[in-house]
Amino acid sequence: MTTVVKQLMKERFRGYLPVIVDIETAGFDAKKHPLLEIAAVIVEYDDNEELVITESHSAHIIPFENSILDPAALKFTGIDPYHPFRMAITEKEALGKLFTPIKNAVKRNECTRAILVGHNPTFDITFLNAAIARTKIKRSPFHPFSSFDTATLGGLMYKQTVLAQIGKAAGIEWNNELAHSALYDAKQTAEIFCKIVNRWKQLESLEK
After folding, report:
1. Are strands 35-45 and 142-149 parallel, antiparallel or unpaired?
2. What is the average per-residue pLDDT within 177-189?
3. Which of 34, 49, 188, 195 has its CA 20 to 30 A from that of 81?
């Protein structure tokens, strides 16, 4: 009789819990330009040891005091920072809203901390760290500089580096009208990340 040992998330990613993050901003300078939207998607193993999306959290954010809004960035994202229906909250409130469920997921998966997964994540982690510093949050669940990049993974697995093109190559539907929303992009990136990790597992099993 063969004994099947369930693999824990902490064993798959060296103690880290992958959390897919997407951030929409009003420019490219993390110290001057504000966060406008942030989304985090938590992925975990299901009963078949397949990586799946289990939670999604997002927030619209009020530009921080004395921040600069780049008109070109706003035109690109289509975001009106002061639209009354955005139901925007402060940076500190937004980070707290996302960090609490992430910390809970880290704990239940017996991981040490979260690791940011993003598409070209240097941008996202730079803005995230700047917001953490501004809000003086002392206990971020994220590793301060390590990350996983779906642009790199997409290039390896699907020969594509653009998020939409990776999604199409992976058989994931893409809606251009919804793109550049933090939550939509984070969910799409999460689907891609899960598909690549699960496909890698299948390839490993074929080699054994």
Report:
1. unpaired
2. 90
3. 188
Q: What is the Cα–Cα distance from 171 to 106, expressed in whole angstroms?
A: 30
Tens digit of each residue's pLDDT (9 = 90 or more) over 75-122: 999 999 999 899 999 999 999 999 999 999 999 999 999 999 999 999
Tokens in use for 120? 């070209």
Cα–Cα distances in angstroms (integers) from residue 118 to residues 128, 151, 204, in the given order: 12, 8, 24
And the tokens for 17?
């819990």
pTM score: 0.92
Q: Looking at residue 9, what is its pLDDT?
A: 84
Q: Mind telling me the catalytic residues?
A: 180
Amino acid at 39: A
Look at the chain and count its residues. 208
Q: DSSP character for 109?
A: T
* Residue 45 pLDDT: 92
The 10 Å CB-count burial string (b at 16+, else e) for 147-176 is: bbbbbebbeebbebbebeebbeebeeeeee
Say yes or no to pLDDT of 4 above 50. Answer: no
Which strands sit side by side in the sheet containing 142-149, from one edge to the other?
51-60, 35-45, 16-25, 113-118, 142-149
Q: Residue 130: helix, strand or coil by DSSP?
A: helix
DSSP state of 3: P
Contact predicate 96/132, CB 8 Å? no
CA distances from 36 to 25, 94, 136, 174 (A): 5, 10, 18, 22
Q: 113-118 and 35-45 as β-strands: parallel, antiparallel, unpaired? A: unpaired
Q: Which of 131, 139, 117 is nearest to 185 (CA)?
A: 117
